[in-house]
């Protein structure tokens, strides 16, 4: 574009777009389009064409010429903003606010997946997705939260593996501090389960050679994955599948690094005859599992259909006690998903199979359990709230810091040692949610307002500590939702506008029970007094409050994220893998 040399003082900003003709039909010629922003009249534009081509009409788009009597009316974005810096800042501020508002209101949890265009890279870590399922007919409250502590010696611990007796005095105990019984390329795993009446959600894995399916409760609060096994079994639940039967080749030696990891918090003991790695797990509900570490092939199918077979270490559990004998009527063991080195995701990450990221999505719809995944390919880039994990060398839980909690617009006391903040543990192995003693008492007090609407406390209902009889027949939470308020957990800052918030709607803390001899249901509070659970000053978010959310534990970046979701399936999947169980 040539400019008039007689008018050098004029400033013109413009863009010229030249479109070449198709290679298979050059007769269409070139198209030249000019866009200008200026305070003066654009000089006549000149276009050229090849001698042997027919050039179609060229459209030139320019600013309208300003009036010679009123040159100040000519508009230029650059001139306007350079002369009005405040307006520029205001414009940028409004634009940024609009972008944030749009992303928060209209972004879907599954808008965009990381590394979605890298499926052809065979060298990068993979991800695996699993469907989740309901534990139909297993009406038990479960709480499986624990940590490693010193072990008490046990004499005469004998396990027979293929007829060979092996004796050891080295036992590991996984217990919860102050735990007591409650007074009342990518892999996705499908998930089944619900909170009430079934207790937990479970998935399945294929293990051994030949491979066999095993149904496992998903538990982000447990380190070790274990399966009931015939070693032989001295006390096992009925289970969903035949017991796993190990051979001597499968047994992990006491000197193995994984055994040392399991027993790292024990006092040093000498055991010259130990040929295996024994463990004992005691959970917060006082159920327990005793076994030996084993190693076998785990069969995982990636998103693109390829099969990954690798050795993993797990527990061969031959002695279950307590509530486990009831809760394992529909499953075969527990899938440990904590950030401990012995957990399944940590083992896969140490082999370079996945990035150490765990996610689960528990569906609120009882007909759809949801899904879980290992690896970071299914983590959304948009629609998630992220908070940092709290680090602790002795605690492998997924926990973060809470700064405020509200029931509706009413603030509740945190009730922690530090009154300004408290810890929150995300635990998929707990059926219900637990508040500190003070926060729980204030919540129950706030909920007493429903008595003015005709709800009457029903002390005869044994389902949970607090239940109400409604003044009308109820079948689902939707029948009573409007009479209760949303709980909001606030993270990061007490300033509402800049904090991260985890919302728990009424369906995230209420259940409907149907007491015997009653024709209509009661509504019960699924939040319990946690003063005797863990250290008594920690909030525990269980399955009831995690439903309807995609929750991600990113151990690579040490952060926890969540976002609302229907939990049907990630957008990259037409359908989840399934099985009959």
TrEMBL record:
InterPro entries: Aspartic_peptidase_A1, PEPTIDASE_A1, Peptidase_aspartic_dom_sf, TAXi_C, TAXi_N. One of its GO terms (molecular function) is aspartic-type endopeptidase activity. The active site is at residues 219, 427. GO terms for biological process: proteolysis. Gene3D superfamilies: Acid Proteases. It comes from the Eukaryota. Coiled coil: none annotated. Keywords: Aspartyl protease, Hydrolase, Protease. Residues 201-563 form the Peptidase A1 domain. PROSITE patterns: PEPTIDASE_A1 (PS51767). The keyword Hydrolase applies. The keyword Phosphoprotein does not apply. Belongs to the peptidase A1 family. PANTHER family: ASPARTYL PROTEASE APCB1, ASPARTYL PROTEASES. This is Peptidase A1 domain-containing protein. It comes from Gossypium gossypioides.
């Amino acid at each position: 574009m040539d400019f008039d040399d007689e008018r050098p003082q004029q400033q013109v900003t413009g863009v010229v777009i030249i479109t070449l003709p198709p290679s298979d039909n050059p007769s269409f010629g070139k198209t030249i389009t000019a866009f200008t922003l200026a305070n003066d009249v654009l000089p006549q534009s000149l276009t050229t064409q090849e001698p042997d081509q027919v050039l179609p009409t060229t459209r030139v788009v320019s600013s309208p010429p300003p009036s010679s009597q009123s040159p100040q009316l000519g508009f230029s974005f650059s001139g306007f903003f350079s002369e009005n810096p405040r307006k520029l800042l205001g414009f940028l501020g409004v634009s940024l606010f609009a972008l944030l508002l749009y992303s928060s209101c209209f972004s879907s949890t599954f808008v965009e997946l990381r590394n979605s265009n890298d499926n052809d890279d065979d060298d990068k870590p993979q991800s695996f997705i699993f469907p989740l399922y309901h534990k139909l007919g297993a009406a038990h409250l479960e709480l499986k939260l624990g940590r490693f502590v010193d072990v008490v010696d046990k004499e005469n611990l004998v396990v027979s593996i293929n007829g060979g007796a092996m004796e050891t005095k080295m036992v590991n105990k996984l217990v919860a501090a102050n735990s007591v019984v409650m007074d009342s390329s990518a892999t996705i795993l499908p998930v089944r389960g619900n909170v009430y009446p079934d207790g937990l959600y479970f998935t399945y894995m294929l293990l051994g050679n030949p491979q066999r399916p095993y149904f496992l409760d998903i538990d982000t609060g447990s380190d070790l994955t274990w399966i009931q096994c015939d070693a032989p079994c001295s006390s096992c639940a009925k289970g969903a599948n035949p017991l796993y039967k190990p051979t001597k080749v499968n047994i992990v030696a006491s000197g193995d690094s994984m055994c040392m990891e399991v027993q790292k918090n024990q006092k040093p003991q000498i055991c010259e005859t130990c040929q295996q790695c024994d463990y004992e797990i005691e959970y917060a509900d006082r159920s327990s599992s005793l076994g030996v570490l084993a190693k076998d092939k785990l069969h995982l199918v990636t998103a693109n259909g390829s099969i990954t077979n690798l050795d993993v270490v797990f527990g061969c559990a031959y002695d279950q006690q307590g509530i486990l004998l009831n809760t394992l009527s529909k499953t075969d063991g527990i899938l440990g998903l904590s950030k401990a080195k012995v957990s399944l995701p940590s083992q896969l990450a140490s082999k370079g199979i996945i990035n150490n990221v765990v996610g689960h999505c528990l569906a609120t719809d009882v007909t759809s359990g949801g899904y879980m995944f290992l690896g970071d390919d299914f983590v959304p880039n948009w629609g998630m709230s992220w908070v940092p994990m709290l680090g602790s060398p002795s605690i492998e839980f997924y926990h973060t810091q809470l700064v405020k909690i509200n029931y509706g617009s009413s603030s509740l006391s945190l009730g922690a040692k530090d009154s300004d903040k408290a810890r929150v543990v995300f635990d998929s192995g707990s059926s219900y949610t637990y508040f500190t003693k003070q926060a729980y008492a204030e919540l129950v007090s706030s909920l007493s307002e429903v008595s003015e609407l005709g709800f009457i406390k029903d002390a005869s209902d044994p389902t949970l500590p607090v239940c109400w009889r409604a003044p009308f027949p109820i079948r689902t939470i939707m029948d009573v939702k409007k009479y209760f308020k949303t709980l909001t957990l606030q993270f990061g800052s007490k300033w509402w506008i800049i904090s991260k918030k985890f919302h728990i709607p009424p369906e995230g803390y209420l259940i409907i029970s149907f007491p015997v001899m009653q024709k209509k249901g009661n509504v019960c509070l699924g939040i319990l007094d946690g003063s005797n659970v863990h250290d008594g000053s920690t909030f525990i978010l269980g399955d009831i409050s995690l439903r309807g959310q995609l929750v991600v534990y990113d151990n690579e970046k040490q952060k926890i994220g969540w976002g609302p979701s229907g939990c049907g399936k990630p957008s990259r999947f037409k359908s989840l893998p399934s099985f009959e169980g």
